[in-house]
């Protein structure tokens, strides 16, 4: 039955649906009976129901569209459903009652004949009155909807006119600017456009500009003027093929230039629509629109148009056309896209209408400027087949052109509540009619029903009383035994009763000691307003929770949490409404929370102090390390040919090796600090796995050779060629694991195994060694910071114990983990497991292919990373550094690469070198004497951050490379936020420094622009 009713709502086949309802209901009856008698009864009942439904269908499908033709289809269908239901439902219900064997009582049978006539009369009159009012409501709904549609259309038309008026006002303001200046320069025009940004102030405008008329004979003179005033890149371009005219209409100024560069220098007179509108504007002096065109700067090819306004010499009479043409200077104009200019216009129509705007009066797709629909149809067929109830056209004149605004109602308007009124009128009227007829029918049998109702109510009342008594007993049990202080308060806040837990909080010996006492008496005055406000909220049914200090009758102070709800007592023992409150002693809990909060604040302060200390120590240690490692490299280069003192190279190598070891310790401490502070981040980018393994093996081969160990790698299965991970952090993990294996292995080999695990879609990289091994207890302490297997290990092999902890945390951040197995004297196996994303089926290498591809990748990288001897030849560099040793070292590297270096000691001197008068407040020197600025970020008097920000504020566009010894999270971003173009860290990596600076070589910059 449910699906039959559903079909009657979705489709127009109401007759079949109602017949199906009757048939299925009769089938229920038939299943309870048997024989031919039941079948005859079924056929007769079905025929009666089908006849009733057919009559209702005739009225709903044939009569209603003729009587109320202005209703939309959905409204007619709903009204037809209501009429069908009103007529057929009583007959179906009556027939089903007789089929189910429902018998009338003797009283009802006796009075049924007398009641039938007035009940029938009420039913007929009610249906007639309901039909009349439904028809009247339908007509009134159509009239009101038409008035509402006209109002919406007028609002849309007014909004279109207002938006076009904004463009006209903007052109007049721009013309005033031209008339107020003898010659408007490019700088003045740009400054005006910064204040009056066309893309911000005028919706849909792509810019605003100035067009100058140039005779063909004056083109050479004009180009010389434009090269001086507008720049060498200015060129005259055409938009059409009109060659018969002796003048050009050239766009000289247009802003913003970046978005309108394609229109800069365009001859708008080379295209007929643009020329006709421009000549009309010049002749009339009025704002003039072009016909629909495609804007050359609009890459999306929206419908567009140009809005012209002629500019004349100020103070000259402009009464005649000849006077206007003699005083003519040019045009100000705006390129406008109609889609953007009219975007959001549906808001003025509340989304209930569709808007189409046409150029000229012709309603033709070729003239359509704008189209927007406030209703989104499910398909194009539904959209094209829909016929709106209302549609109207509004002519508008803008800039000498006549537009047509076509407004049509959409389903949002056509399905408004106004059209539902006839349906609801029918439903409500029919319901009232049936109810009134039923009331008349039932008046004759009211005594019998009254007796039955009284008996039923008596039984229900007895049951309710028993349930209430049982509920009260349960409440009393809970009230007496709950461990929370429960109080019954009247609306004035006085205690009526409390439970034993409440007596304990009050410190009272009996109920009489606190009964009638206000709860505010034991609360300090500063909490009164808060408690009163909360209790008032509880009285009106709002949640109530308040915390305050309470003093017991015996003087004990407690911190109490109060919850309250309003409660009504039907027994009337107390007042009808009172408050049920729960008091909980939270003194111990709050004290513990305060202690915990204080401890957390102290821990945060200590962590902040640690971070600041590490950042400062990083800078203070890395700065001298720059000089130590740098000069050690220089000494090594100069002493490489000294055969008389070979021990000198050993001394230098000792300095360099220990300096690098100290730097590695500093980096490990900083990495651990960033990880524990949650400031370490990892990325996920495509990377070559085979090349990374080969690079790590080549790097660690030197250490293995120094100890006489065999180092090799084995690819045990097919592996993915490209994976998504962080190559820097993955390299750091492998270097740490291989470095530890080499350090703790005296004899034998170290091996790296690479294997793909298909069942887990993961990559496993295992580092095996034949070293000293570890016990089970040593393994449990292995990944703790500053902890090694035991103290003898640290004394024998050295190290801080940070590498493994950092590696494990990095592996977890990469979506994997590190596990270890080991036996004393038999070596150890560290296994790095990485979960992989979905891998391309064609992205695989066999073990042999992996080795060959890695070797080719290594050779390609080595050949591509070789720097030319004079990579910075001819480059002018301003170096700002406060350390004399670092100045000499960095200058040496830069000059050796071919650069010209000027050095200063602080940021103030850096700014002075860049200004014309050599002062901090002076303007920048143009052009600059330098190609790039290399500055330390921590210097006296004015640091690198302040100097960089000041230079950027002055308009300096030179590349500025930061030289920083800070390595904490956010330090490098701070350099970029200050205005630096790039950065490099201390200690100085000569290769990295040259690579960074080489990016800003004038030749490289010019090649990048080209």
From TrEMBL:
GO terms for cellular component: membrane. InterPro entries: CHASE_dom, CHASE_sf, CheY-like_superfamily, HATPase_C_sf, HATPase_dom, His_kinase_dom, HisK_dim/P_dom, HisK_dim/P_sf. GO terms for biological process: regulation of DNA-templated transcription. Keywords: ATP-binding, Cell cycle, Coiled coil, Kinase, Membrane, Nucleotide-binding, Phosphoprotein, Transferase, Transmembrane, Transmembrane helix, Two-component regulatory system. Pfam families: CHASE, HATPase_c, HisKA, PAS, Response_reg. Residues 589-616 form a coiled coil. Signal peptide: none annotated. Its EC number is 2.7.13.3. The modification 4-aspartylphosphate is found at residue 936. Residues 876-1001 form the Response regulatory domain. Residues 246-332 form the CHASE domain. CDD domains: HATPase_EvgS-ArcB-TorS-like (cd16922), HisKA (cd00082), PAS (cd00130), REC_hyHK_CKI1_RcsC-like (cd17546). This is histidine kinase.
